[in-house]
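Reopening this one. Same input as before:
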Amino acid sequence: MACRTGCPTPGKHKSWGECARSANLRVAYCGIGGGDATEQNKWDQELELYRSARRQGIRPDGTKTSQIMRAIKASDAIGAAYGRDFSAAAPMPAGAEVA
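Same output, byte for byte:
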């Protein structure tokens, strides 16, 4: 018998593989350390967001979404790319002179 255990139509298939394909079996995703597809997708999205920020000249403090979003928001607020040389200065008081 070439069919897999639990086949609803035993003997119909020429091989175990044909039987498994007809059942539309899927192998569950299992990443390193027991991760799953959801975690992998989240990680991939975070890294793509990081890459996007770097293409814009932004240098986030890390690759976590919260760090990247903080850098993007700071860049948008100041009008300059967040990074090592970035500093957010307080607005100058009205009437102050620049030396």
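So the earlier flakiness isn't reproducible anymore. For the record, The chain has three helices and no strands.
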